[in-house]
Amino acid sequence: MLKTIDVVAAIIVHNGKLLLARRAASCDQAGLWEFPGGKVEPGETQARALCRELEEELGIHATPGEWIASHSREVSGRMINLHAWSVARFSGTPQCTTSHSELAWCTPARAQDYDLAPADIPLLEAFLRRSLPG
């Protein structure tokens, strides 16, 4: 049986652009782009985990918005339950730490041009569907 891990991802929107982070060489799936975030610790809510991870990984204080989508995928012998949340409000300037080698702001449509981690693709697609005018 695979170990199951809950992970949160932030779809950070600022001035009409999304923030993508490139996974560092020392990380699993090195070089792929992703929405920043990380593991939900035992007893922690998804919102609290997202705030903690964004502070640790990017040095920002964020206010999670609405839930976007969840997706489960086997990655490196583990079942990852990835939960995406929108983040439109944050303070500070996102900075790379040991988890990421590069950050990029791009329009939502251009995000598809990046080499995204496979688990992040359905999250981007769900965000794009929600963002389209009704």
TrEMBL record:
One of its GO terms (biological process) is DNA repair. The keyword Magnesium applies. It holds the Pfam family NUDIX. The keyword Magnesium applies. Its cofactor is Mg(2+). Residues 3-129 form the Nudix hydrolase domain. Keywords: Hydrolase, Magnesium. InterPro entries: MutT-like, Nudix_hydrolase, NUDIX_hydrolase-like_dom_sf, NUDIX_hydrolase_CS, NUDIX_hydrolase_dom. GO terms for molecular function: 8-oxo-7,8-dihydrodeoxyguanosine triphosphate pyrophosphatase activity; 8-oxo-7,8-dihydroguanosine triphosphate pyrophosphatase activity; 8-oxo-dGDP phosphatase activity; 8-oxo-GDP phosphatase activity. Signal peptide: none annotated. PROSITE patterns: NUDIX, NUDIX_BOX. Belongs to the Nudix hydrolase family. NCBIfam families: PRK10546.1. This is CTP pyrophosphohydrolase.
